Every structure is written in C-alpha cells, then in structure tokens.
Amino acid sequence: MSTTPPPLPPPAAGWLRFAPGLHVLLNYRRDWLARDVVAGLVLSAILVPVGMGYAEAAGVPAIHGLYATIVPLLVYALLGPSRIMVLGPDSTLAAVIASLILPLAGGSVERAIALAGVLALMTGGFLLLIGFARLGVMADLFSKPIRLGFFNAIALTVMISQMPKLLGFSASVNGSVERVVAMATGFWRGHGNPAAMAVGLGCLAIILGLRRWRPRWPGVLIAVVLATAVSAGLDLAGTQGLDVIGPVPHGLPLPALPFAGMTLADLRVLAPGAAIIALLAFADTSVLSRALAQRGGTRVNADQEMLALGSANLATGLFQGFPISSSNSRTPVAAAAGAQTQLANLVGAAVIALLLVLAPGLLKDMPQAALGAVVITACITFTDWPGMLALLRQRPVEFMLAGVSFLGVVFFGVIEGIAGAIALSLLVMVWNAWHPYYTVLVRVNGRKGYHDATRHPEGRFVPGLVLFRWDEQLFFANADLFREAVLQAVDSATTPTRQVIVAAEAVNDIDVTAADMLAALDHELQARGIELQFAGLPGHVRDLIMRYGLSPRFDAEHFHPTVGNAVNVYRRAHAVDWKDWDEA
Predict the structure, then answer these.
(1) How many CA atoms lie within 13 A of 363 on its CB side?
(2) Contacts of 178 by beta carbon, 8 Å cutoff, 6+ apart
(3) 3-state SS record for 420-433
(4) How many distinct helices (H) and strands (E) make up the chain?
(5) How does pLDDT run across 329-344, given as a tens digit for each residue?
(6) What CATH code is carried by the domain that includes residue 547?
(7) SS3 sequence of 283-345
(8) Residue 220 and residue 304 in one domain
(9) Structural domain contains residue 418
C-alpha cells in the first residue's frame, strides 16, 4: 500500500451520492488507466486460486468461489465508497458458512449451493439493515478477546478441514475433533495418496518460503500454476488418483432465486448465522475502509460502505455465490500493484469472466491439494497465538473470554462459540458493575488532589471527615454494597466521623432502588450525627435525585463541585485543627 492515491474528483451530487464508485468512474482520468489495468491483471492471478480454495472450505464446489468473486467486484465498483477495496470470499467466513450449510445439505451438493445462496441473501439483508438503521454499534460486541479466540479457532477449524486434501483422502465426519481422529486413523491405515501429499506439501513450502524470502513474488499463483502444470503434464489424476477440480461449467451463472426447496426451519437455522456473518463482515470492512481512507486522506461514509457490502452479498446470492466480505489480503495486492480506482477490480473480474467463457478447461487439472494449501497458508496469516497468550499475562479474565470463544467454536460450533463468549463477556461486564472499585481518599504531601489510601499509606486523613470514592453507577445490584462500604469506611476511621463526602465523579446514573438506599443511609448516618454529602456528582444524576422526591433530604448544600471544594467547606464549618501541605 505504498502507492500515492490519485486526486479525488469533485464530490458527487444528486443520486450519484448513493453510487460513489460510479461517480469516480464517470470522472475517470486517462492517466490512471495503465496502472489500473496492470493492477487488475495482477489481482486476477490471485483471485482465481484464492476464491476457489475458499469456496471448497465453505462447503461448495470451487467454481462458485469465482462466481462469488466476479459479482461482488462489479457491484462494489459502482456502489462502494472506497477507491481500491477488494471484495470476495473470505477465509474467516468459510468455516461459519460450512458449519451452517453442510448439516442442512445432507450430502447434496445442489442443496449446499442453494443454502449458500440463501445465506448470502440473508447476510446482505442484515448488512443493509445495519447501513440504513446505523446499527454498526452491534459489532462492538466482538471485543478483542472474543475476536482473538474466534479467529484462532476459525483458523484451526479451517486448517483441519483442509488437511484431508493434503493427505489425499476424505474424512466425511462433522466436528474438528472427529475429523482429526478420522484423518489420523486413515493415515495410519495407509489411505493417504502420496501424489496429493507431495503436491500439497510442495505448495505449502513454496507459498510459505516465498512469503518469507521473496515477499513481493506471487507465491500463491506460482504454487498453483506449478501444481496444475505438473498435474496435467504427468496426468496425476489418471495415473495416481490425484483429486483435481475436474471439468467446470462453461460460461457465467444466470441470476436465480435460490429458495427452491427451502423450508421455514432452514431459514430459522440460517438467520442467526447470517446475522453473525454480517457483523463479522461489517467489522472487518469498517476497519479496512477506515485504513484506506486514512491513507488517502479522505473520509468514507460507513453507512454507504455497509449498503455497498450488503448489495454485493445480495447480488452474489442471486448468482450462485455465498457470503463475502472485504479482503485484508487481496486489497493490499491491488494497492501494491498500483491500483488507482475500482477499475482495477473491474479488470480483475473481466479476466475471470473471460477465463470461464473462453478457457474453463485450464482449471480442470488444478489439484485439490493445492487449493487446500492455499487456504491453510491464508489461515496461518490471521492466527495470533502470541496475542492470545499475552492476555493471560495482561488480564486473566480477558484470556478466559478468548478461551471460551476458542473452545466454543472448536468443540460446539461457530454460532454457539460466539454466542457463549458474548454472553460471558456481558456477564463479566455486569459483575464489574455489580462489584465496582471503591476506596477512601487521603491527602498526599507534595501532590495535588486526593488519592487512593490503599496506594498511598503515607497519606493524611482530614480529622472527622471520610472521603469515599465510588467508581461506578449506583443501581439495584450494587446499592447494598455501597451502603456497607460507606459504613465500613466510617467504622474504620481513626477519628470520630462528622461527615462523609462521596467523590461521585464516576457515578453516571442512580436508579430508584439506589435512591431509596441513599435516603435510608442518610437517615442512618444522621442518627449517628454524621452528614452525607456529594462531590463532583454529574448534574443530570443530581437532577434524578431531585426527581425521585429526595430534595427535602438532599438540598443544594449537600452537593459540591469538587472534592477540594467540599473539604474547604467542611474545614470552615467545623474549625478543624488540620493544615494542608500547601498552606505551610
């Protein structure tokens, strides 16, 4: 992504505001053409093997990966706000798609294709809903620990699903653990295919080796072309039983609704998965879009981004594709090749379309083991085991969330794993609000403000005054804890307490239950000759207290703008024999 972005055309007006890609193409400059054409040709060489490999990982025939590549590129070129974003099949979505459609397909390839199309339509619908209703905030539910666990689990799941291709035999069982057992058993019994192992391991070595020592070389293209040439030249499919792509349909797919044979029960199963796919696609695309916009010194409309992504999914669902997202691996390829506009993607789509129309036979000898190697190396790139382990050192509870996400996806499925991790993270959030941090404040010589007594044992207390800090909202679940903590602070004071001042800057809400508790606490403290006052309480929360009918008990004198102001008022009222360090 080192190329300089092209100058922008004038802002779109009228209906072209909803088709920013078309607006750029209508204002196209001739000096962009050469770079866009070259970038499109380079990009097409990567799109073919990657798209076919991800289709296999998603549980549909490889040719449908090309359908799911051509159509989104065309749609996004017209509607997308980003100049060089590349859309298409995505490795992180492959396991989600496969886990949803394969159990419902019952071994039928035709039904798997139809289910994938329906899933793409539903995903597109959810993305359009996110764009129109501005519901992108839902992606915030995927916290960093959940994403780390999810991506590592997806990578492991997809790699396990592709291992049979490298070994040269099928493992027709569901579940990652069961598949590993079946592979190990089959390999031990000699069911492996030496030709498939040689091709698969050779492709892995080429791709990973070039990525390490020659990162600018197209390792995926080189590996797949060599494997296909060797397969065709030595007729490995006929002589060694090597599993290859085989004949692919001639021409391009026609639009059709994939709902034939679908039942309401099928749609109910697919809907939660489509929602999760939409959120994952939204999160990935938003991050990549913002990065591209920052690089180009522009701003991208996030809602328009979602409308374009949703439209691309709808279109690919109508043309025998499956759910797609932005690509964090192919977009940099386009940028590094010099892409200036979405015309580069149009060139890439046109090259693939011409391949299917004029020379589909070039793909028939492509080994499945090579495609498996492509997917496995892609999975290796987005795993982050060190990041996951770092959570254990940084915050164990976050590591636990990542672990739940990882184990849930691996052992129970994508939907169950993510749902369990989100539920657990929400429970942790509730627990933190239920049991917030609180402390007593002291004055520390030479430092401004009032500080945590547990961190500053050398601090000085103001005689007769308890400064109590509460770091959370007050609501029904923690109201009793607040009361007990205040009373414990009073009982632990070194001198008889005359006043309690609650440092309440972090109290952003008080519900009815907590308000009743405050009234009862104030009554209890008054019976002991102690005043209850507040410092730094936000104005809207103070308004709530008044609205709850507590104004007779908590008048204006009970509230102070800062802790320092409250302490000064207390000292003037009670003539305390105590000097602050800055008064010397």
Answers:
(1) 25
(2) none
(3) HHHHHHHHHHHHHH
(4) 22, 8
(5) 788 778 877 888 889 9
(6) 3.30.750.24
(7) HHHHHHHHHHHHHHCCCCCHHHHHHHHHHHHHHHHHCCCCCCEECCCHHHHHHHCCCCCCHHH
(8) yes
(9) no
Chain segment 73-129, per-residue pLDDT in tens: 999 988 888 888 899 998 878 888 998 999 999 889 999 999 999 999 999 999 998
Same-domain check for residues 349 and 216: yes
Name the residue with tokens 């993270």. 425
Q: Looking at the structure, do residues 289 and 341 belong to the same domain, yes or no?
A: yes
| Contact indicator for 200, 434 with CB cutoff of 8 Å | no
Q: Which residue has the tokens 């369990």?
A: 420
CA dist 375 and 362 (Å) reads 20
In which domain, by residue range, is 364 found? 29-245+263-401
Domain final residue pick, 350, 380, 401: 401
Any domain includes 23: no
- Which of 12, 7, 17, 24 has the alpha carbon at shortest distance from 343? 24
Over the chain, what is the mean pLDDT? Answer: 87
pTM summary value: 0.74
Q: Which residue is listed with tokens 């991506």? A: 151
The tally of domains found in the chain comes to 2
Beta pairing, strands 465-470 & 499-503: parallel
